[in-house]
Amino acid sequence: MTGSLSALLGLEARATSALLWGLVGCLSVLVCVQGYTLLVDPLVPITQALALALVVGSVAAGGAYVLEPRLAAWAANRTTK
C-alpha cells in the first residue's frame, strides 16, 4: 500500500487532517465515558454517548479545518522573528 492517506481518500491534506482530529475527539469522549462507567456507574446510555461523541468530533473537525491555516501562518511567522 503506497501513497498518503489524503491520496487514498481523494481529499486534500487539510481536510484529511481535520477528519483525523475529529476522529480523535470522538474516540476521546468514548474512552472517557467508558472509563467512568468502569470506575463508577454508567453516566449515560451508549446511544447518548455516541451522540455526544459525534458532536464533539464534529466540533473538533470543524475547528481544526478552520484554525489550521491560521496556526500554520502564526508558527511560520514566529520562527522568522
Number of strands: 0
Q: Tell me, briefly, the overall form.
A: elongated
Low-confidence stretches: none
**What's the number of helices?**
3
Radius of gyration: 17 Å
Q: Portion of residues in helices?
A: over 70%
Mean pLDDT: 89
Structural class: mainly alpha
Q: Can you write the helix and strand succession as a string?
A: HHH
What does the largest sheet look like?
Answer: none
N-end to C-end Cα span? 41 Å
What is the number of domains?
Answer: 1
Strand content: under 5%
Description of the molecule:
The chain has 81 residues and is mostly helical. The chain has one domain. Helix content is 83%, strand content 0%. The protein is built from three helices and no strands. The chain has helices at residues 5-9, 13-39, 46-80. The protein is elongated, with a radius of gyration of 17 Å. The termini are far apart. The mean pLDDT is 89.
Entry keywords:
81 residues; mainly alpha
